[in-house]
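Entry: tRNA (guanine-N(1)-)-methyltransferase
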Amino acid sequence: MRIDIITCLPRLLDSFFAHSILKRAQDANHAQVHVHDLRDYSTNKQRQVDDYAFGGGAGMVLMIEPIAKCIRQLQAERTYDEVIYMTPDGERYEQKMANRLSMTENLIILCGHYKGVDERLREHFITKEISIGDYVLSGGELAACVVADSIIRLIPGVLNDETSALTDSFQDNLLAPPVYTRPAEFEGWKVPDILLSGHEAKISDWRFQQSLERTRTRRPDLLD
């Protein structure tokens, strides 16, 4: 899988993709992440990528020309499954969407900034708009990282135990059950006996029941 991220603040993303699972995924060639500095596609010497909004009002708007130039250059090199725009008014991001996107080959993610992007980009270039929640960030970079992380970890071979992702919260509309590790007793607090029994079928049923109860208590909307 290849993910191309377009941003006017590329250095914000450097550290995120240089460590842990995301770094190992790239080193093993399971995924490629390429960050593109939008200012490299500016049409003037000042490397300008934003301008005032027509009609007035507070805040700047990302210009259409640099973004269009970058997207077109990328699309001339390969076919993309989606051109994604990170925006607060996009579709709410959920695990099912992450699952679908993890099956694709090539993605472009455009990071919004300031008051957003010229609407003509959304009309003619963007194929999918995503929001990671009902709140506003300073830019789309953190949101792009969230989406990329949630997708890449699902690619076969990225996690040491591929079944791990299949038991995460939301995969089956349930929250994950509680988990424990050593020691079996700490300050009088004991791990449930069932988890020490070695009886796989009973452990599996216990975990399912715990997931169901936790979901009913914390996120009953998932069971509707």
